[in-house]
Amino acid sequence: MTSTSFPRISVSIAAMVLLFGLSTTLHAQKYIKGERPQQRGYSLAVITEGGKTVWLGGQIATVDDAGKSLAGDFDGQVRQIFKLMNATLEKAGGKLSHMVQMTVFITDVRNGDRLTEIRREIFGDNFPGSALITVTALADPNAKIEIQGYAVIGSK
Question: Which of 39, 147, 22, 21 is nearest to 96 (CA)?
Fold first, then answer.
């Protein structure tokens, strides 16, 4: 059996850690905006490089933190959902502003404009990409909205 000689590459462990650390923490988030999307509170696209992707399952909120019912309170449900999503992202090392895409299901199309106003309060003018879908009902009959999405952590 013949032995094959491979060229040796000399890289210190410290350099590898530094390079690996940079490759996983450098992250840019750019927004492609348009007039109509900005009016409706979403971006045409969010471009990311690097970072860690977190897929957020569908979230509803029919009670607040104190256990008070939010049935019939669209604003309260939206705000509580974003609060819960932010808490989930914090557990993953991120925050709500790291969201790059969301799918929103609402049971009353007339709440679309109010959702836009609340999203504007929460995200400023750097909105995630988004789809808004009207459905006849959600899994919990008291839920007026459900949001799912994903975030890329490591930006801003």
Answer: 147
